[in-house]
Structure formats: structure tokens, C-alpha cells
Amino acid sequence: MPTSAEVIQMAVTAVTESAARYGVTDTTVAELRNRIHGKPGYAEGYLNGNLTALLVRIADDHHTDCDEPICRTCDNLRDALTIRLADMTTDPRMRRPRPARWPLQG
Ligand SMILES: [Zn+2]
């Protein structure tokens, strides 16, 4: 069984390889890292909010484009949305009378 450090390293490697295939540059990563550096609360909300918004955009775009009865992307998006929704609905901030402001404008 891999250690947690090994799991993290495998995840970093997988994300790095996928990001390279999509043309993510070190410069854009550094710009985002500098934007959130030293602001842990802001960073968490900003990153989670943006990742959630991107997940929904990808899922909605794919749903519009896909009419396959069996699709690995649909299966993966369903799993990702399930995980995200389970996480969001256990977050005490989501139980406020008014939802937290979506941190897209950061
Ligand atoms: Zn699909």
C-alpha cells in the first residue's frame, strides 16, 4: 500500500502530465500560485469555487454535445459531480440561510 506521500506524488504526476497535454504552462501556474500565496482562507474558497464552476461548465458542455448511451466521460463526470455534491452538502457554510458568495471574481 502506498504511503500518503507516494499517493500525493502520483497525483501530482498525473495532474502534471494531463496539464501538459492541455497546454498548461509553468507561467500560468506560477501566476495563480502567486495570487493565492499567503491567503489560505481565500485560496481554499477561490480554488474550490473555481474548480466547482469549471466542473459544472465541463459537465453541461459535455451533456449538450454527448448523445452516446454509454460514455466514459459521462460516467466520470457523474462520479465527479457526486463527489463534489457530497463534499458541498457536508460543508457547514452551505447550511447558512444565504449561500456563500461564489468566489469567481476573486
Ligand atoms: Zn458523454
From TrEMBL:
Top-level taxon: Bacteria
Entry protein name: Uncharacterized protein
Organism expressing this protein natively: Actinoplanes campanulatus
